[in-house]
Design a protein that fits this description.
It is globular, with a radius of gyration of 21 Å. The protein folds into two domains: about 5-125, Enolase-like, N-terminal domain (Enolase-like, domain 1), CATH 3.30.390.10; about 150-415, TIM Barrel (Alpha-Beta Barrel), CATH 3.20.20. The longest helix has 21 residues, at about 180-200. It has twelve helices and 14 strands. The strands form three sheets. An eight-stranded mixed barrel has the order 4-5-6-10-11-12-13-14, surrounded by six helices. Strands 1-2-3 form a three-stranded antiparallel sheet, with helices on one face. By secondary structure, the protein is of the alpha/beta class. The chain is about 40% helix and about 15% strand.
Length: about 425
Amino acid sequence: MSKIKSIQAIQVLDSRGLPTVACRVSLDNNLTAGVMVPSGASTGAKEALELRDGETAFMGKGVQKAVDNINKVISPTLIGHNPLDQKKIDEHLISLDGTEDKSNIGANAVLAVSLAICRVAAKEVDKSLHSYFGYIYTDITGNILSPNLPMPMLNILNGGEHADNNIDIQEFMIIPKGAKDFKEAIRWSSEIYWNLKAILKERNLSTSVGDEGGFAPNLESNEEAIQLILESIQKSNLNAGEDITLALDCAASEFYKDGKYHLSGEGRSLNPGEFADYLEDLVENYPISSIEDGMDENDYSGWKILTEKIGSKCQLVGDDLFVTNKKIFKEGIEKGLGNAILIKFNQIGTITETIETINLANSNNYKSIISHRSGETEDTTISDLCVGLGAGQIKTGAPCRSDRVSKYNRLLWIEEECPDLELSK
């Protein structure tokens, strides 16, 4: 069996022009694979630490310390190891860092090595990356999953931390639930996106885009954003609620202060019960099938109210609430908060921990959604991860910008190469 010969990291740029970590692993049989890790803007307070330099270069946002930790701290300890021992390698990385939030070496450094080894190991056993993810899921958990093509959730209108406008809700997404295959799902979504742009232009509204490719106009209210999307669905000759449903990412932690949810774009401040009523009204009046971070990450009583109100008729997704952390997620399950979890592997730091969190979701009837970050690269690892683990849903931005489209294009190739895979419904 081949062994790890070298691990090399460099500093590269993400989709916002900020530095991030790239890592390449080579085996002694000359097989090589590399990855680039993403970075978030709207981050949960309990996420693993993304190590930044804090010096003058790149306005303090450099990641040279994380790069050096890979090249000088991690690399010497893994040379000669079997790349197929993913769990053992990840446990070593966790131990080497020695902190709960990976603040010593940096979650960005740890994740880059974990994923790069995973990629080169797939080559070593001559498996597609998505097949290899399925293999290591079974190896780590003892359970077997059925791979599938994920239903995409496309963020086509941006607000909050992802845009420079007055909309409070961070993401307005479309879900092409009526599509017969992934190709049709992407075609429908692209046509809706183009028609939304045309409608915005007709009304002299901005067609500039936010971090994730969605349009970012100034609007009167969150409801106006929903109504514009419904109009674009109709203009695309599709039926809202049947062909297409809507999803929201409130990112409520961003506008929660002193026990109130401040919708500054609408000039309203609501207590948790009132904000739950606000979201319930949106679900009752519009074809919304999923709401992410509908309450602040620490507002457990608010989450409980929201789950009791609409959890039976709407997917309620914890992102900042759970931060892909198995321990935190387990506590949320015990409290009965939400019914789905967003999976961002840079929130936790290793592929093993990511898999363990997804397994916990599967064991407790929670849905998993594999997600990008607002600061992305052309790396497509999450596409393979979603297919191989049969997660069923992927959230990776608008059908715009190569850092987003690369993920969809990878899924289109997987669909072409694996005609037996079905689109998750």
